[in-house]
Amino acid sequence: MHLNLFSWVIVDCLDSTTVYGTQESKREIQEKMLKEATFGVADYVVSALALCISLSIGLYYACSGGRQATTAEYHLGNRNLNFLPVMFSLMVTSQSSILILGVPAETYLYGFLATISGFGFWFAYWLCARIVIPIVHPIKITSVNEYFNLRYKNNRVRFLTTVLSFIFWFIYLGIVTYGVSTAIESILGVPVWLCVVILSFCSMIYTAVGGIKAVIWTDVIQYSIMLTSVLAILIKGSMKVGGGSEVIRINSEGKRLDFWNFSLDPTLRYTMWNVMIGNTAKLFYFPLSQSSVQRIGCMPTIKDAYKMFYIVAPLMGLTFFLAGSMGLVSYAYFVKVKCDPLASKFIKNPNQIIPILVTEIFHETPGMAGLFIAGLFCASLSTVSSGYAVISSMTLQDIIKMKWPNLSEKRSTIASKLTVLVISFLTTGMALLLANIKGTLLKLAQMVMTIPTGPYTGIFLYSIFCTSATSAGAILGGIVSLVFYLWMAIGNIVLSPPSVEKKLAPAPLDMCFLNSTLVSYNTTTAAPTSSPASLEGFNQIYGMSFQWFDFIAIIIVFVVGLITSKIVGAPKEEDVDARYVLCFTEQFFPYLPVRVKHLLSCRSTIPKRRKQIKAEERQDNEEMIVGTSFPEKEKGVKKNFREEIR
């Protein structure tokens, strides 16, 4: 049996004072053994190389091309970047330490149904491709919040969505930074605060000096390293267990593969209903967020933007599947060695399951633990750097340019770079704050991080699909939705409903010692745990699974928004600019007969008007190519959007 996990068992059986001649506690000896046995020179070299590559790419783009001298180059790569790297960057932005640590931990504790929730990315990106791309790409905006200014002709809704976006990104980056720090702490013993500072500093350097080009190209390299580390864990772990079929057999016996749960009980943590419907609604934010809009803006043509979304969707589902499979391999391995590290109290945080597995299976392979740390670091660096770029572009367009609309390109670029510096300090503080919240990273992300995303997504969809939408309806609907989400999330966190928190039986503990006493368990029984009291009365509402929160929040925005618009006076459809709204039936049922679509859309004129605008724009482009000027009657269609925003 490998020394790392079980050397401390021997220590428990011996008198530490007699054997070691010191007064060191057993835990201190265990931590020393773990550190000495798992990380060598090769591991440090591999990890350092990953950081050096990221920093060198940032420095390269700081000194090449236009040297990030304009905001168009700094934030959008002059809207002319290659399709492939932008696609990988879009994918990696939402794949971080939450994916590498949180998804396997959630699968380990609750089964493979937690992994299937990742297919919500697939559905969300495919659906949103028909929503955000036809709106955002033609109007060529830098910040997604500029859309709301164009849609409502005022800044009120834009202000609310900007605040929601900032809240999301600060929480998200804090969770990501904290997640990688817990893993490094469990392997190296490095304090969480130091890991947080190193990660934030590295991301800040190459984002500030290299701009979006540095972020995108480092994302490509970092995704390659992350994927290599995940595949290495899956292959080596499966070999240790006895092959893929043995992994499946053990997890099937441990009920980790019982994912065909179609129960209508809303309190269950995972069912096929809340995974496919609720989680898809939860993940709608990502394709509608600033990170996606920024990458849509980097594409030279709208066809490239569509292609990017359609390819990214299944790739994200596949990556989620691989991450969840690590949880299955972890469970199979610890069943084989008959010692569950979580139930035996060897680790207290479920997010440390994968790091412990890595130290076990790669103890004889120099550099592999370093590859895991490098992969984890790269997954987090890509997300954090993308988040810095996102917040920087929103700060410039939604705050600085609103106050000083005539700010020069040079000063705007300098302001963007200084913003990255400030953001790094704020996210560092957020990461240290979130370190005090218990639970898996995936649970933390899906509940705390998504508090502002439900209202934001609701406002976005309400604005696009409802021609009767008003700024008052969007604001009131968003606020009511946010209050609902906060209320449910806080209640769920404080009360920890038992119906939501039921975990599957852990691996056996036959080979584990607890408090210097050998406790024998057979492979079918679990360590007894005390269950919290069941919720009663009105408190039962807090037992609802957090997977449903975003879906309900989006519905609240529509209901409150439409009622408010009716009260304050909804605009007529012909008065609404067709460039900023879509017809639902036209977008999602394009192949129905024209008469049927016209009937289902309540005889909306939006599709016809949008086609007319596209035809006029094509004609304008053709006239520009042959050197002719725009006819006076068509100049109204080709407005200057920047002037309109100001």
TrEMBL record:
Keyword terms, alphabetized: Cell membrane, Ion transport, Membrane, Sodium, Sodium transport, Transmembrane, Transmembrane helix, Transport
Topology of the protein relative to the lipid bilayer: Multi-pass membrane protein
Keyword Cell cycle: no
GO cellular component, one term: plasma membrane
Top-rank taxon, per record: Eukaryota
Chief localisation class: membrane
Gene Ontology MF annotations: symporter activity
Localization in the cell: Cell membrane
Pfam family, one: SSF
Bilayer-spanning residue ranges: 41-62, 83-103, 109-136, 157-180, 186-209, 309-334, 368-391, 412-435, 447-465, 472-495, 541-563
GO biological process: sodium ion transport
Sequence similarity: Belongs to the sodium:solute symporter (SSF) (TC 2.A.21) family.
Protein name stated in the entry: Sodium-coupled monocarboxylate transporter 1
Organism, as annotated: Magallana gigas
